[in-house]
Design goal:
The chain has 372 residues and is an alpha/beta fold. The protein has nine helices and 23 strands. The protein has two domains: 57 residues, no CATH class; 290 residues, Metal-dependent hydrolases (TIM Barrel), CATH 3.20.20. The model has no long low-confidence stretch (mean pLDDT 96).
C-alpha cells in the first residue's frame, strides 16, 4: 500500500488546526501527523481544508446536465479543478425525455469516476414539480406532483436532493415518496405560505433551495418560505456569489440558520467568456461578468462562480477560514450523512484543497491523488 503526503501546512480537522501533514494511503486519509495549533487567518504555511461539496450545480464551460455523459464529465472536472471534491449535478425543468436522459448520464458518471473527476454523489432534481408562478430561470413546462414519475426517476439515478413546491397539486405526495427513498427534498420555486411550508416539513421536507431566490418571502404580515427558513430552518442552501443575495442577508441567514451551507448554482456559461449561451439545450442565457441572465433580462439564470469563489466570498464577509470551510464542505456532508467527506479524519476520503494565506489555490487532491 503506497502512502502519499500532503505539503506541510495547517490542516483543518474537526477538533481544530494541526500543524503538519495529511498522510494518504490509496484513496483515504491514513493519519494526520503534527501538533495542534491556533491559527490566525494569515499563516506562514498553506491551509489544508476538506474538499468543497456543491449540492446545486448545473454546468460550466458551455455545457450542462443535458449535454450528455462526456459533457457532464467535462463540467465536473472544471469545478474539481477549483477544489470541488464532490457534487450533485443538477437538472432543471425540462421535458420528461430530457430529464430521463440526463439522469441516466449522471448515473453513468457516478458509477464510473475518473481520477481527475470529483465524487458524483447523485443528482439534484430541480423541477419540474415546482410552482409555475415562481419559475425564476426555469422553463414554463412545470408538472403537477407525480409520485410515480418521481420514483421512476429515482430508479434511473440516485437522487440525493430534489426541489419540490409543497403547495402544488401532488407536491406533498412527491415529498413523501422521495423522502422515503432517502432523498433530501427541499422547498424551492415555491409560493407556499408559512403554513403550507410547515405542512411540507411535517411530510418530509429537509431544507430550502437557493434561499431567498425563487420563493415567497419575508413580508411581516404574510410570511412565506424564506420567513419559515429564518424562523425554523435547520439546513438551507444559499448561492454565495454576493449577487443573488445581498451580503447583509447572507450574514442574517448565517446567524439564523444553524446549518446554512453554500452552493454555486453554476450554469452553462460559468467559466466562459461573456456572450450568449443556452441552458439545458434550448433556454437562451447571457453572461456578462459574473452575472448570468435569461436572454430577455427577466431573471438571473444561475451563477458563474465555483465553490472556491463562494468560499472566498464568505471570508470577505468576515467569516474565518474555518467557518467558511464549514459552509463549503462540512455541513453538506452532514446534511447527506456522508461520513467519508467534509472532514479530514483517518478513514475519510483523501479529498482536500491546499490554499496559501491569500486563499490562492495551490493544489487539489481527489481520493488520494493530486490532480492540480
Amino acid at each position: 500500500m503506497s502512502a502519499k503526503t500532503s505539503p506541510l501546512g495547517y490542516v483543518l480537522t474537526p477538533s481544530g488546526w494541526v500543524h503538519g501533514h495529511v498522510v494518504c494511503e490509496d484513496s483515504r486519509v491514513a493519519r494526520i501527523e503534527g501538533e495542534p495549533v491556533f491559527v490566525t487567518d494569515k499563516p506562514d504555511l498553506p491551509y489544508i481544508l476538506p474538499g468543497f461539496i456543491d449540492l446545486h450545480v448545473h454546468g460550466a464551460q458551455g455545457v450542462d446536465y443535458s449535454s450528455g455523459e462526456d459533457a457532464i464529465r467535462q463540467f465536473t472536472r472544471f469545478h474539481a479543478a477549483s477544489g470541488t471534491a464532490a457534487m450533485a449535478p443538477t437538472t432543471s425543468t425540462s421535458t420528461v425525455e430530457v430529464i430521463e436522459r440526463s439522469l441516466a448520464d449522471i448515473e453513468k458518471v457516478r458509477l464510473s469516476p475518473r481520477p481527475d473527476e470529483p465524487t458524483v454523489l447523485g443528482a439534484h432534481l430541480e423541477g419540474p414539480f415546482i410552482n409555475p408562478g415562481k419559475l425564476g430561470a426555469q422553463r414554463d413546462i412545470t408538472r403537477k406532483g407525480d409520485a410515480a414519475l418521481a420514483l421512476k426517476w429515482a430508479g434511473i439515478c440516485r437522487l440525493v436532493v430534489a426541489t419540490v413546491a409543497p403547495e402544488i397539486p401532488g407536491g406533498i405526495e412527491v415529498i413523501e415518496a422521495l423522502t422515503a427513498r432517502g432523498c433530501r427534498v427541499q422547498v424551492g420555486h415555491s409560493l407556499a405560505t408559512f403554513e403550507e411550508t410547515a405542512s411540507g416539513f411535517a411530510h418530509g421536507l429537509s431544507g430550502f433551495t437557493h434561499l431567498f431566490n425563487g420563493m415567497s418571502g419575508l413580508d411581516h404580515r404574510k410570511p412565506g418560505v424564506a420567513a419559515y427558513a429564518l424562523a425554523r430552518g435547520r439546513y438551507a442552501e444559499l448561492i454565495c456569489d454576493l449577487n443573488h443575495v445581498h451580503p447583509a442577508l447572507v450574514l442574517a441567514a448565517y446567524r439564523a440558520i444553524p446549518r446554512l451551507y453554500a452552493i454555486t448554482d453554476a450554469t452553462t456559461a460559468a467559466g466562459c467568456p461573456d456572450g450568449n449561451y443556452n441552458f439545458g439545450g434550448d433556454h437562451p442565457i447571457v453572461k456578462k461578468g459574473l452575472t448570468i441572465m435569461l436572454a430577455d433580462g427577466s431573471s438571473l439564470a444561475g451563477s458563474a462562480i465555483t465553490m472556491l469563489d463562494a468560499f472566498r466570498n464568505l471570508v470577505s464577509l468576515g467569516l474565518s477560514v474555518a467557518q467558511a470551510s464549514d459552509l463549503c464542505a462540512t455541513r453538506q456532508a452532514e446534511y447527506l450523512d456522508l461520513s467519508e467527506l467534509g472532514r479530514l479524519v483517518p478513514g475519510s476520503l483523501a479529498s482536500f484543497v491546499v490554499l496559501d494565506s491569500a486563499l490562492a489555490l495551490k493544489s487539489v487532491w481527489l481520493r488520494g491523488h493530486q490532480t492540480l
